[in-house]
């Protein structure tokens, strides 16, 4: 038997046999294959996948309600102004001793805002008081002399009838009495003048106290203690002409400039809707107060005063920018008629002879046939086809069709991200 030989042959090493497969090399191979697949998928998403057409969008705005409807017939921009605003100054020239106001502080009518140095005014008042006292003393002395002269004239009058004194002596006594009466009247008038001068001097002392002419809010503090203030401009930079500026916040309104070509649409008492630049989501109702009967030749505009129904609201301050929409009078809406919406005219295009707009539906667009109404500035009234809150594509390109994939423009996407 060759059993031993077979066993010996099995122990020989075959130099030509392929090396055995390593387990570590197998895992490396699988990892390389997986990485290649991931890179391929990522490349497809980045370069091969359809990103859609880049578009800009705008929101559709509803302009009606269930019971009544009104629409803006004209929009205009302007600023918040105050009908009662005053830069308060002293009535006399003097040095500021004390300032009692700060910006943002509310003051009442008659409240002390500042005081000036009263030394000169007080000295003038003291002098007037002395002059009054002297005039009164003089009047008392003349009155005593007059009393004696009247008694002397009466006595001589009795004696002249008995021919005990001459008529010349009697007439002299009468003349002296009349002269003293005139002196007393003059002394009394001098005393009255001195009294009036004292009242004026006292008013001069009171003029060193600056008071608020009406209730309002301080928006500017113009002077400091130690500065010279004057109601008149001194022609230099070292004399202030005011203590501070106050505004009656209840007198705030909006002043807008309307083009001459559109002023016919505006009527006194017309309802309005004001949006402040600082609060875009706050729509303030109001009405037209008056149309100023004068036009600006250079700008071809007419000023319109617009009242606000939110008077006293601390969010409204002077010189704020505002946009005013002049509204039609509210009209009843039929039960079977849906309120219209306002759409930018740039979102409406003509396709196959029909007016359409492209509404955003996820990452695609949906073509909507429209029933149009009036033209309101840069917008169109849409009676059918869109609803308030829909987002529509602005300036739709020719290649945009129903169902096309779209993506927001970069600046618009960045703005949305910042708002979120």
Automatic annotation (TrEMBL):
Top-level taxon of origin: Bacteria
Q: What are the protein's UniProt keywords?
A: Coiled coil, Membrane, Transmembrane, Transmembrane helix
List, in alphabetical order, the Gene Ontology terms for molecular function in this entry. efflux transmembrane transporter activity
Q: Which residues cross the membrane?
A: 26-47
Q: Iron as a keyword? A: no
CusB-like beta-barrel domain residues are: 254-326
Protein name, entry field: Efflux RND transporter periplasmic adaptor subunit
Protein species of origin: Thermomonas aquatica
């Amino acid at each position: 038997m060759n059993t031993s030989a077979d066993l010996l042959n099995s122990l020989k090493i075959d130099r030509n046999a392929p090396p055995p497969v390593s387990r570590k090399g197998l895992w490396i191979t699988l990892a390389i294959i997986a990485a290649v697949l991931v890179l391929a998928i990522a490349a497809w998403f980045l370069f091969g996948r359809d990103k859609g057409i880049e578009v800009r969008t705008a929101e559709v705005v509803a302009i009606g309600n269930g019971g009544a409807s009104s629409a803006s017939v004209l929009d205009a921009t302007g600023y918040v102004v105050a009908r009662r605003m005053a830069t308060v100054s002293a009535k006399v020239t003097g040095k500021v001793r004390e300032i009692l106001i700060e910006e943002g502080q509310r003051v009442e009518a008659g409240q002390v805002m500042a005081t000036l140095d009263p030394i000169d005014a007080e000295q003038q008042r003291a002098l007037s008081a002395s002059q009054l006292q002297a005039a009164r003393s003089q009047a008392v002395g003349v009155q005593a002399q007059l009393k004696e002269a009247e008694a002397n004239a009466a006595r001589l009058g009795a004696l002249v009838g008995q021919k005990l004194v001459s008529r010349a002596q009697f007439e002299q006594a009468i003349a002296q009495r009349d002269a003293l009466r005139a002196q007393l009247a003059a002394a009394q008038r001098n005393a009255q003048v001195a009294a009036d001068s004292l009242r004026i001097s006292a008013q001069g002392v009171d003029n060193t106290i600056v008071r608020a002419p009406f209730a309002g809010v301080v928006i500017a503090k113009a002077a400091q203690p130690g500065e010279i203030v004057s109601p008149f401009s001194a022609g230099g930079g070292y004399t202030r002409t005011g203590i501070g500026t106050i505004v009656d916040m209840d007198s705030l309104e909006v002043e807008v400039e309307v083009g001459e070509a559109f002023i016919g649409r505006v009527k006194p008492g017309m309802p309005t809707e004001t949006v402040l630049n600082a609060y875009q989501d706050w729509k303030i109702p109001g009405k037209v107060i008056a149309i100023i009967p004068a036009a600006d030749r250079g700008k071809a505009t007419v000023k319109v005063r617009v009242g606000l129904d939110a008077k006293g609201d601390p969010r409204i301050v002077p010189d704020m920018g505002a946009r005013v929409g002049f509204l039609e009078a509210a009209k009843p809406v039929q039960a079977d008629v849906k309120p219209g919406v306002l759409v930018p005219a740039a979102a409406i295009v003509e396709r196959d002879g029909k007016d359409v707009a492209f509404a955003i539906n996820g990452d695609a667009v949906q073509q909507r046939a429209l029933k149009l109404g009036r033209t309101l500035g840069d917008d169109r009234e849409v009676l059918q086809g869109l609803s308030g809150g829909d987002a529509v594509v602005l300036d739709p390109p020719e290649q945009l069709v129903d169902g096309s994939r779209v993506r927001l423009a970069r600046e618009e996407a960045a703005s949305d991200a910042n708002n979120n």
